[in-house]
Design a protein that fits this description.
Length: 267
């Protein structure tokens, strides 16, 4: 993409040596730099540092939903429209007879300016490619398979289980079934709470909280799923199924409200 700046800049050194021409070369450079800074789309949810500021915000706000593609399409239309406009202005300036006078320069000076320009553009190109291919600061977890991610979480849970989550919830076990992580919890309410109340609390409180957790997001991004099972006395467990599609439709987590006095439900 930096060739969009390099080619007219070379022409400015070798032929169109005047301020009016270089004004539009500078405009293209600023346009290109702003596009990279705001709309670069080389990243992902797990590697947001590769994205521009606006694409990063849209990707995170929509959980990498279709809005990212729509914003990207709008950007391409606006970006190339700007490039065409600047190219047209360069052409008009180059052909204008009223601007035929150029600043004189020797061949040696032109050669030095050309070499300096080439070095700067080579550095910009190298930096851009290096930034796209640099290892993620988040480590190598994104390279793990779905099964490896689940096995890692299962091992961590089994090493800590049984683990008290809050006053009424205990994590008891974890296992893998294919590409699904299954987490078992025991729920022990101090007060009488109906199953319907607990199911509603799971849907409205625990679902948004679970979808917002980074370990689960990593699993879902790689194509896995999760199943949360909450056992309540002798009744059938309350099950919460999570997938990337389910979490994409979940609103931003809110503070949990638990249907019983002095207790809460949390994962």
């Amino acid at each position: 993409m930096w060739l969009l700046v390099y080619i007219p800049a070379v022409m400015g050194i070798l032929r169109y040596r005047r301020l009016s021409y270089w004004r539009w070369v500078g405009a293209i450079f600023i346009w290109q730099s702003a596009a990279m800074f705001l709309f670069a789309a080389f990243g992902s949810l797990e590697e947001p540092e590769r994205d521009g500021l606006i694409i990063r915000a849209v990707r995170q706000a929509t959980n990498d939903g279709p809005m990212v593609a729509l914003v990207g399409l709008a950007f391409l239309i606006v970006f190339w429209g700007g490039i065409i406009y600047f190219a047209r202005r360069l052409y008009v300036d180059a052909k204008s007879p009223a601007l035929a006078a150029v600043m004189p320069a020797s061949k040696v000076r032109k050669g030095l300016e050309f070499a300096a320009l080439t070095a700067v553009m080579a550095w910009l190109l190298y930096s851009s490619i290096n930034a796209m291919n640099a290892p993620s600061p988040r480590g190598e977890s994104s390279d793990l398979t779905v099964e490896a991610i689940i096995d890692r979480e299962v091992a961590a849970v089994k090493a800590a289980a049984p683990m008290q989550i809050d006053e009424v919830t205990t994590m008891t076990d974890a296992r893998r079934e294919g590409r699904t992580l299954i987490l078992d919890y025991r729920f022990s309410p101090a007060d009488a709470v109906s199953r319907e109340q607990l199911e509603e609390a799971v849907r409205t409180n625990l679902l948004p909280q679970a979808c917002a957790e980074e370990p689960l997001q990593e699993l879902l991004r790689t194509g896995g799923s999760a199943r949360y099972r909450y056992s309540l006395l002798n009744e059938e467990p309350i099950t919460l199924e999570l997938s990337a599609e389910v979490c994409r439709l979940v609103p931003t987590p809110a503070s949990a409200t638990v249907p019983q006095k002095n207790s809460s439900i949390s994962r």
